[in-house]
């Protein structure tokens, strides 16, 4: 029996890679009196029981981290990944706060996110133009840092007044390049203390870094299919997809939805007189002027050439006309300079339409979509015929 216990103990120690008292302490004790042998056997059984508990705990922790890694790896977008890291991670690891700092040279990631999702509302997400501020958080070499330093914790989680007493700082590395840092804050002072085994946390940091890099790459491909790269507005495909979804939602809420069509006046003349590069700048200026005039729920898209479309959810005819008139006025005040420093102005003709579902409305989603677009398009032609630089609504 004793030899079986020793063999089992050796196996557990090997599997856990734990340090314990030498096995010689428990072997070759046959020369001891029976009472002493029983005492040693009891000590051995207690040690074995403790190691088995630790093994089960390690196995449970490993499974928990495995499921967490899988959760992050299954993120289908950068927005989903950010949400899981900055919100869900607190619940899954029973943390008080989580903070993510990303190195974003030339603001490429921020622009990417803005182009696809607009402004994200994560107070615990911060970007840096270089890796220096992130490097300064760590010693040399850069590796996981566990701390109970209240001053450091206060600097890390300055965005919140919730109490954090210990923190794990995980550097996010890709090919020896630091791309960010994620900080796990706990209300438990003993949760993250120096000397704690960090193998799981190191692996988690590696997985998070990989997920962020992969998500950014995927979003870059997505950007090519959804955004007009010249004006940074959405493209025609995105607009149609969004309009279809909004009409489906509107049909349930019975709220009005409006559509604007904008066409730059005499744009061919702009290209012929000032050159196509100046024409591109004119399109960019128009888009940049319109964006601040819209809500987050509105969708501005370049429909093609010098045409733009705007979807206005939950917007009545009168409200749509007010928005259209404001856009027309702002665009007419833009001053554009060509390559020879010659300033010139542009104007737009705008068509508007509105659809509001009712009990007697038999239009399908596709028909409602076609109605909004075609009526707004007719409005543009009416505006052109009325002398341009004006707004026309078509019932």
Structural description of this entry:
The structure is a single chain. The protein has helices at 2-16, 34-73, 78-92, 108-117, 132-135, 150-156, 199-226, 236-253, 267-274, 276-290, 317-332, 365-385; strands at 97-103, 125-128, 145-147, 166-174, 177-186, 234-235, 257-264, 299-304, 307-313, 336-337, 343-344, 348-355, 391-393. It has 395 residues and is an alpha+beta fold. It has three domains: 2-69, no CATH class; 77-225, GAF domain (Beta-Lactamase, 2-Layer Sandwich), CATH 3.30.450; 234-393, Reverse transcriptase/Diguanylate cyclase domain (Alpha-Beta Plaits), CATH 3.30.70.270. α2 (34-73) runs parallel beside α7 and α8 crosses α12 (365-385). The model is unreliable at 4-23 (pLDDT under 50).
CATH architecture of the largest domain: 2-Layer Sandwich
The averaged pLDDT comes out at: 87
Q: For the largest beta sheet, what order do the strands appear in spatially?
A: 6-8-9-7-12-13
Provide the β-strand percentage band.
Answer: 15-25%
Helix content: 40-55%
Number of domains: 3
Would you count the extended β strands for me? 13
Tell me the overall shape.
elongated
Summarize the structure.
The protein is an alpha+beta fold and 395 residues long.
Write the topology of this structure.
Blueprint: H1 2-16, H2 34-73, H3 78-92, E1 97-103, H4 108-117, E2 125-128, H5 132-135, E3 145-147, H6 150-156, E4 166-174, E5 177-186, H7 199-226, E6 234-235, H8 236-253, E7 257-264, H9 267-274, H10 276-290, E8 299-304, E9 307-313, H11 317-332, E10 336-337, E11 343-344, E12 348-355, H12 365-385, E13 391-393
Parallel strand pairs: 1-2, 6-8, 12-13
Antiparallel strand pairs: 1-5, 3-4, 4-5, 7-9, 7-12, 8-9, 10-11
Helix pairs in contact: 1-2, 2-7, 4-7, 8-12, 9-10
């Amino acid at each position: 029996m004793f030899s079986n216990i020793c063999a089992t103990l050796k196996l557990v120690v090997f599997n856990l890679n734990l340090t314990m008292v030498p096995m010689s302490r428990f072997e070759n004790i046959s020369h001891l009196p029976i009472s002493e042998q029983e005492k040693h056997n009891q000590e051995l059984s207690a040690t074995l029981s403790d190691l088995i508990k630790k093994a089960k705990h390690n196995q449970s922790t490993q499974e928990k981290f495995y499921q967490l890694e899988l959760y992050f790896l299954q993120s289908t977008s950068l927005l989903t990944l950010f949400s899981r890291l900055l919100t869900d991670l607190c619940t899954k690891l029973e943390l008080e706060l989580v903070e993510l700092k990303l190195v974003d040279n030339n603001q490429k990631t921020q622009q990417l996110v803005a182009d696809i999702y607009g402004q994200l509302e994560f107070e615990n997400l911060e970007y840096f133009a270089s890796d220096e501020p992130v490097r300064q958080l760590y010693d040399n070499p850069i590796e996981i840092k566990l701390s109970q330093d209240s001053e450091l914790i206060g600097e890390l989680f300055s965005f919140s007044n919730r109490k954090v007493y210990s923190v794990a700082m995980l550097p996010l590395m890709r090919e020896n390049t630091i791309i960010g840092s994620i900080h796990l804050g706990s209300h438990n002072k003993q949760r993250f203390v120096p000397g704690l085994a960090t193998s799981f946390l190191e692996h988690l940091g590696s997985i998070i870094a990989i997920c962020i890099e992969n998500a950014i790459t995927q979003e870059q491909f997505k950007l090519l299919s959804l955004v007009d790269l010249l004006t940074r507005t959405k493209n025609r495909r995105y607009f149609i997809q969004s309009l279809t979804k909004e009409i489906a939602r509107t049909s349930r809420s019975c709220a009005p939805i409006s559509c604007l069509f904008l066409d730059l006046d005499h744009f061919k003349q702009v290209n012929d007189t000032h050159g196509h590069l100046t024409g591109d700048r004119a399109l960019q200026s128009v888009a940049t002027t319109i964006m601040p005039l819209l809500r987050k729920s509105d969708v501005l898209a370049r429909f093609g050439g010098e045409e733009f479309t705007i979807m206005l959810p939950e917007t009545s005819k009168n409200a749509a006309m007010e928005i259209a008139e404001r856009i027309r006025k702002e665009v007419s005040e833009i001053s554009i300079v060509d390559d020879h420093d010659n300033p010139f102005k542009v104007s737009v003709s705008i068509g508007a339409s509105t659809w509001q579902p009712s009990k007697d409305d038999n239009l399908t989603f596709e028909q409602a979509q076609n109605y909004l677009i075609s009526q707004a398009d007719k409005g543009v032609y009416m505006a052109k015929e009325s002398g341009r630089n004006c707004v026309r609504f078509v019932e």
